[in-house]
Amino acid sequence: MAPAVIVIGALLVLPLGYLIRTSFFIGEAGLPAEGGVTLANYAKLFSDTFYIRILGKTLWLSFLVTVVAAIIGYPLATFMWRVSKRWRGILTIIVLSPLLVSIVVSSYGWLVILGSTGIINNALMWLGIVDSPVKIMFTDIAIVIGLAHIVLPFMVLSILAALERIDPTYLEAAKTLGANNLWTAWFVTLPLALPGFLAGTTIVFSLAVSAYVTPAVLGASGPNFITTLIYQQFVSLFNWPLGAAIAAMLLVVALGIVFLYVRLFSRFGGAAVQAQVADGAK
Amino acid sequence: MSIYLRLFVFALILFILAPIIVVVFASFSATGVAEFPPSTWSLKWYPHALSQDLFTEAAVTSVWLALLSTSIGVPFALGAAIVLVRTRFPGRDAIQTFLLAPLVVPSIVIGLSILLAFAAAGIRDVPIRLVGAHVLVTFPYLVRTIMASLTRIDRNVEEAALTLGAGYLMTFWKITVPLIRPGIIAGMLFAFIVSFDNVSVSLFLTNVKLNTLPLAILNYVEYNYDPSVAAISTMLIAFSLVSAVVLERLVGLRRVVGG
Predict the structure, then answer these.
(1) Residues of the domain holding B196
(2) CB contact under 8 A, B20 and A101
(3) Burial code of A20-30, b = ≥16 C-beta within 10 A, e = fewer?
(4) Average model confidence (pLDDT) for chain A?
(5) What is the count of structural domains for chain B?
(6) How far apart are CA A243 and CA A234, in angstroms?
(7) Which residue of A93, A157, A273, B10 has the fewest C-beta atoms within 10 A of its own C-beta?
(8) CA of A34, closest CA in chain B: separation in Å?
(9) Number of residue pairs across A and B with CB atoms under 8 Å?
């Protein structure tokens, strides 16, 4: 175990420490970073509306992605919960396929679907709903669609895990006491699935915030997301200290969400769900 | 189950599979543009894609990278998993969280921090920093699947071996390792996929001479719209599908992914 701790320490903790240190260096676009300690990079991030806008947009789009994933993830999870074991196996492979297929491949697929000569636009024009192609590709809508697709498996698995922990006698009791199916689904199943929603939204939101490929391929060109902004600072503008400061902020946001979640659960009990996040936190 | 729920679920399945289906069809297009459904059919994009060094060299790099980082991680993960599953000591949970931490750190931040730290340490070799980064991102998956299979084996079998006079080392090699082999293989396969598909960590660590396949595809898509990427993608999808079935058979997909 000690060797493993050393490996993670050397490859994760030390480099992260160095990244944070770099964020306090004096930096300017195109110039090598200089040592010394300055808060200028952070001051710039919190005063320049350009950076605030991109950060705000990242949080807003990630929120939308989380909502979409929750809305479409719940029916999918309840369906998987109720079908036979055999069907559940097949559905598991389908639902998890966005994780197993390279993200580059699915982004390329969305390019073909959402492009100006893509399936959606061809269908809309064929149906006579629009006269000229609608711009979906390279917009925020495309980012939300692509991200919701990638994160959906985590939402479904989290909700499904919560559903599977429901004691079947509860549902029978509701039925015996005269509740119809809709009533049971709304007042018994849904509340009992809430821990799964909470776990799912936590994982999904932190994944969405830190996604790079989807905004880079499906979004408008230029920095449109916190991750593409980091990329631009490092690769195009060579302002490493500022890029490191943005990366440090992303790190704080991502870890903060997970921390909040764990705190929330230790307050309300639910050790089982805590265990779930410990092994499902990706 | 109501008909509406069934219809809705069917639509969702279509949504999940849409990009994959489209890519597979587009790869058989005879025209120079990826389209769905293709107006004319052809297999020509497969040899076309496979004849481009850009893709084949990157594919070789990606396979080596995934094999190396997965194999390096296994002994460390095995050791850590055994201690975490078999012993109880103060701070055990903290150490488990620490070893799984690479999962919660955004991968773009991992890539950047490795770039900066390795540069500061004077290590500029692309292969070394790529392997280092990939060992880190695949490690939690190895630990998790190996831990899961260790908790599920019957300890009586090991005790029987010990009682019958086998030493600890012999018991470990002849009993424990064979029992958790499906878990180790599943963990390695999933770690391989995670490494092979990785973009955001490799993004800052490759250079013009040494590129990984996903990054090569990304660069290509930026300037080309022909179906050769669809052809490569279809081959990758086939590999993913086979892996999915293997993982489901070995230990169950959900256990590997964690959920």
Answers:
(1) 52-225
(2) yes
(3) bbbbbbebeee
(4) 88
(5) 1
(6) 6
(7) B10
(8) 13
(9) 250
